[in-house]
Structure formats: structure tokens, C-alpha cells
Recover the amino acids of this structure.
């Protein structure tokens, strides 16, 4: 049963210290900014955050980092022109970093959501990112053993949700949302608009309701459409 | 992919090295019609400007789209529609959107015909180094570079052949941290175009220089198409 919330602070209630938090978005496209801001107010700390990037500018994930709440970042591309908050923490030795190839990052979360124990992946063979990992040759090709990344919480930005908990996304803002939604114990999505059950065409639902625990209704569909 | 080989190595003399735009045009010329193609961030993105209107090439962007159109301007700009470099882009008829696991399954699964990447170094066996300088104070960031290098059916690299200091970037062994092993099949540089196979490096064309001059400056064995 999916809960529908109007207040972001209610939507993020109960996130514990030490949680692994999956945060959607590729840069700012699909970034659940209101949920991240609410997480900052909520106060959970000692977090491991999984996100493609390590924050942009001074808002959203960058603000969560600046508030000192994140112990470790798992991401594919932390270094950007506007990632000065992360850069400063990293250079000061105040944050741990695990760099994962982007496709492997997605697949490790997919595996978590799909109940896969581990998988052999060709990406990264022979590179520093495979150091210390088990490798195996299958049909003449080399692979690296990769383990799932399971979240305690996923914060996802979608476009429209229905009262049953189904989600659709918009353009390239879809990115990590559907995968992260499957990979966490508690999935919280923010949407521009919530519609009645039955209003979304079941053929076009991208994230089925079974994966979605809470929806934050931003009520901004007109502005975003 | 079918590529009609040039019959013989061509030395384009009486001219300088290729400019950046000219290099992009040479890469575009070698992309087969109807291919599914991923263009890396930065200079490879400019290859799209040189594809003929009727090329039938479908551009993949790893953040989750096939059928990507040119950069968006003015009213076209939509924060929900960006490319892998986070630049606002447009969508073409026939476009589709998909999530990250699907996007990289497409790549890793060998469905992308060609990807074009930049590089710090390429080795004579086609190893690629393009994600990390190895400097101890650098923040490592890999993005989709390793997935692309490993997954695409054909990996084309475009770069200058020498650093600003004149050091070769086509090398016997990469000294920078690797992105992928034996993955580069074509190397497009300002001074020459190379094919890389398990047999070694073959010069296809030179620009403003000769095979002999390049052989003297590179620490890599060079063959020509005429050596077959």
C-alpha cells in the first residue's frame, strides 16, 4: 500500500542513521531535490549515498554532503565542473569514495532488486577498478565478479504517480529511478502530479506500484508539462 | 559492420594536420549507414554535426535515450532532456527512453555498433586509457567510459597523436590507468588514421606527414595497407 504525502518532511520520516540511501538523477535530471532537502532537515547521518554523481552546486545532494551527513559516496562520476562541495570533502579526507562504472552501478542495483547474489561483468577487466575482485573466463571472455548494491532507502524523481503507487517518468529524467526503486527496502518517489488509480495507462507504467512505498505529490505538473 | 578498405595507404601531403572539425568529418565518413552509435563527451560529440542527413545513424546516449537529436536552444531547452554530458538536447522521430540498466545492457550486450571516445593514450594492441591521469591528487571519475569501451562492437578513438609537449599518445603500453583492454579498433588523430588489430597497427591515411616520419616519432611498429 503506497502512502501519498503532500509534506516532504512526512515523506522522509523514519530514515535511520547509517542507512544506505540510493538517490536518483543524472546531474539534475531526475534528481529528487525536495526529498533530499527533506532528508537534510530530517537529520539522518553517517549515510552511504549511491548516486551517479556527487552533487552539483550547493543544493540537493551537495547540501547533504556539506551538512556532513554522508560517510561514503558510491558513484560513477563524482568529478564535475560544479562538484566543489564533494571535491573539498574528498581532498580533506572527510568522505570515502567508491567509484563504479556507470553500467555496473546500475546493474548492481538491478541485481539487488532482482534477487541476484552476484554476477560476472566484462566491464573493467584489467583496469584498476577490478583490483582485488574475483575474475573468471567464460567462453573465452574475461569477467569480474560484482556484488549487488541494496539500499535501505531509495529517493526517486518521477513525473506522474497514481494513488496505487505506479510511476511514469519523463524523458532522460528516468535514468536511475526505475532501477533504484526496485533495490531499496523503502522507496520514496517525488512526482509532479498524483492521479487517481486507473488514470495511468497500465501499458505505459514504468515502475509498478509493488516497488513504491511512499509518493510525495509536488503538485507542480502544470509547471513541468 | 562492413567497411570497404582503402586499397592503399594515402599520404595527404601539401597540407597541415587535420583541424578538429576536419577530424570529426573523417570519423563521420567511416560510420556505416544505419548504425547505432554512441558519441562520447567532448570532441566526439561533434562527429554528429558531420553525419549526412540521410545517414540513418541513430544516436544512443547512455543516460537513457536512442534517437537523440542536436543540442537544444532557446525554447527547446528541457531540463529533463539532456545528453551524457548533461547538455540539453532534442529528440528525433523514432526516439525512445529507457532506464540505466537497460541503457548499459544495450551497450554491454553488444547492440551498439560504434562508439567514439577521446583518449589520453592508446596502445599498439588497442588498450585504452581515457578516464584517469593517475595523478595522486586527481579525483577518480569513470562514468560510462569502461562500459562503452568494453561493450560497443567497434570502438573508435579520436585524439591528437602527440601531447602539447610532443610525447606520443599511441604507445607500446599505456602508462595511464586503463579503461579497457584491446578494445580500440580505429584510431583517428590529427596526423593519421590507424587500424588496430591483433596483428598490430596499420596506417590508413596520413595528414601533413608521411608514414616514414611517423615511424620515426612513434615507438610503435607501423604497417601500411600496402604491406598486406
Amino acid at each position: 500500500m503506497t502512502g501519498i504525502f503532500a509534506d516532504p518532511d512526512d515523506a522522509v520520516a523514519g530514515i535511520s542513521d547509517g542507512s544506505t540511501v540510493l538517490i536518483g538523477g543524472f546531474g539534475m535530471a531526475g534528481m529528487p531535490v525536495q526529498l533530499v532537502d527533506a532528508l537534510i532537515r530530517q537529520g539522518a547521518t553517517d549515510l552511504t549515498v549511491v548516486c551517479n554523481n556527487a552533487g552539483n552546486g550547493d543544493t540537493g545532494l551537495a547540501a547533504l554532503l556539506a551538512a556532513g551527513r554522508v560517510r561514503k559516496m558510491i558513484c560513477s562520476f563524482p568529478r564535475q565542473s560544479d562538484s566543489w562541495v564533494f571535491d573539498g570533502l574528498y581532498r580533506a579526507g572527510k568522505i570515502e569514495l567508491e567509484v563504479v562504472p556507470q553500467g555496473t552501478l546500475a546493474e548492481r542495483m538491478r541485481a539487488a532488486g532482482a534477487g541476484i547474489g552476484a554476477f560476472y561483468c566484462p566491464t573493467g577487466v584489467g583496469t584498476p577498478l577490478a583490483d582485488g575482485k574475483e575474475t573468471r573466463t567464460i567462453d573465452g571472455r574475461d569477467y569480474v565478479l560484482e556484488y549487488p548494491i541494496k539500499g535501505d532507502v531509495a529517493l526517486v524523481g518521477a513525473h506522474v504517480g497514481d494513488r496505487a503507487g505506479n510511476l511514469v517518468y519523463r524523458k532522460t529524467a528516468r535514468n536511475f529511478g526505475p532501477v533504484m526503486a526496485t533495490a531499496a527496502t523503502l522507496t520514496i518517489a517525488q512526482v509532479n502530479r498524483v492521479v487517481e488509480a486507473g488514470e495511468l495507462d497500465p501499458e505505459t507504467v514504468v515502475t509498478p506500484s509493488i516497488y513504491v512505498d511512499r509518493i510525495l505529490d509536488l503538485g507542480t505538473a502544470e509547471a513541468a508539462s | 559492420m562492413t567497411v570497404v578498405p582503402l586499397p592503399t595507404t594515402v599520404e595527404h601531403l601539401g597540407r597541415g594536420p587535420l583541424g578538429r572539425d576536419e577530424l570529426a568529418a573523417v570519423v563521420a565518413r567511416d560510420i556505416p549507414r544505419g548504425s547505432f552509435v554512441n558519441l562520447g563527451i567532448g570532441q566526439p560529440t561533434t562527429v554528429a554535426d558531420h553525419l549526412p542527413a540521410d545517414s540513418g545513424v541513430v544516436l544512443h546516449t547512455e543516460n537513457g535515450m536512442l534517437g537523440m537529436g542536436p543540442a537544444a536552444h532557446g525554447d527547446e531547452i528541457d531540463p529533463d532532456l539532456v545528453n551524457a554530458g548533461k547538455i540539453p538536447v532534442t529528440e528525433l522521430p523514432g526516439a525512445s527512453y529507457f532506464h540505466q540498466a537497460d541503457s548499459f545492457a544495450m551497450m554491454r550486450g553488444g547492440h551498439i555498433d560504434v562508439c567514439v571516445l577521446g583518449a589520453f593514450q592508446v596502445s599498439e594492441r588497442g588498450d585504452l586509457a581515457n578516464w584517469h591521469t593517475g595523478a595522486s591528487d586527481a579525483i577518480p571519475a569513470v562514468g560510462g567510459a569502461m562500459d562503452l569501451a568494453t561493450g560497443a562492437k567497434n570502438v573508435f578513438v579520436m585524439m591528437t597523436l602527440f601531447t602539447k609537449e610532443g610525447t606520443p599518445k599511441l604507445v607500446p603500453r599505456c602508462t595511464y590507468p586503463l579503461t579497457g583492454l584491446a578494445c580500440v579498433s580505429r584510431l583517428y588523430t590529427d596526423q593519421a588514421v590507424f587500424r588496430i588489430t591483433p596483428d598490430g597497427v596499420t596506417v590508413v591515411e596520413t595528414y601533413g606527414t608521411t608514414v616514414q616520419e611517423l615511424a620515426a616519432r612513434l615507438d610503435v611498429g607501423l604497417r601500411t595497407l600496402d604491406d598486406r
In short: The mean pLDDT of chain A is 95. Chain A touches chain B through 50 residues (CB under 8 Å).
